[in-house]
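User: If you would, consider this record:
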Amino acid sequence: MMLLLLLVGCNPDKKSQPVGKSIMVGVPNPRTPIDTHLSPLAAVQSIYNHMVETLYTVDEEMNIVPLLAKALPTISEDALHYTFTLRDDVYFHDGSHLTSRDVQFLFERLFDPQTPGVSNAFYKEVAGSDAYFAGEAQSISGFTIIDDYTFTIELSRPSLAFVDALSMGYAGIIPRESFLAHQETWGHSVLIGSGPYRFVRYHPNEGVIMEVNEAYRDGRSAIDRIEFRYMDDAYTALLEYEQGNLDVVELNPDQYAQYASGNYRDEIHRWNTLGTNVIFINTKHQDLGNPLVRKALLYALDRDDIAEHVYQHLADKVDNFVPVGSVGYNPHITLPKHSTQRAKELLAEAGYNEPLNIEVVYTSGKVLDRQLWTLAQAQLKEAGINLIIKEADAAAFLDLTMSGQVYLHNRAWLLPYPDGSIFLDYLHGTSSHRASVNYQNPELDDILERAQASPDANERRALYEEAERILVEEATVVIPLTNQHIFNLVKPHLINMKRINSLYQFQESDIVRP
């Protein structure tokens, strides 16, 4: 009966009316259902994490802390066997009890041969996951259930970041039986987790509505209802905020000065991130496969000018792909200064005497990205490189970049925890599940393989630092631009809002009016 009532309440054609304390948050439309199994986009994760929980999470100091697990796992001396114990007071929104079988199902779904998780590479060290994914096994051999609240995971090789990866939204635990009964509509009209908020409604053009979980084990949150409203562009979102239709909206650097000097200056919130604004170069392109051309791009781009006029000096120019303070950050990398003349010389050395045409794709509605490529277009033209700028919606952009069909694109990359292995392993090895750069280098592959398997933290750090040097300084397949800070306009009545590495957290928020 409880499940039936939940599903009736999730009817996508039925709009529930706001009751009690309610907030509206403007976010970009991800153009995808609410399921981190299908999408790695931050907008999806921000919404999803309020309803679906992970074994571990990160606090504001980026420490790993237990959430569904009772404690950090016990790890064997060889660093291959992890023993976990679940909390015994966790119930899903359908009334079912969280057990080890639901956690096992997480990995079965991640490595489902038919519909694998888009980010399952973060968990590929689980022993037997490769055979299960290949359809050669009926179960994942590395996962063993001891009882309802205890299980072990065996790794095929040591992975010092494995527990960290279990804090990511991709590792959200859902009730196995409910998913199997409603998998065709999961993330559309049905979404069941164990979090402090329950799914109410999803509309692909309007957004997502959730309401407080009255039975949450750690006590109900103060906000009764959260509506994440989809915004097609930043300017519309700001107008909606000014009109009082949104309580939270993101503020881009190009609008910062206007709002910082006006009536909304006291409503600006700044969040630091473990993030970098970068340009990715796809070596699959017939011209960009030439390292001299890639180096010419680096010289032709005036990154100081970009930091000033695109990011409005609200972010600092950086020479690193991996954020400072993270494993893999190489403090010895120094990129050359802007030089149009040197760019021309490199192109001539590569045999290009005529202008070079390169297509760029960015996400439609992202004003900052459009400004970046418009400025870059003017800079590169002086060196004899013509940029052809195109746009695609968020879902299409993700598909195009992951499949290697975009030759030049920018992204704001964020680490969910201070370990650059995410940037280095899963984007740039030959075996990467992403084809963003298609860079193949046996030396780099060997370094990444040794770093992944090393149980020694110092050795691992040194190997990843060398990997970053190769990617950024030697091969130039990644061009770092700036570090990343995020700004929001937040109505004064909303208190205790958090953004941890860009992801919204309203679990501890409240509304206080004078």
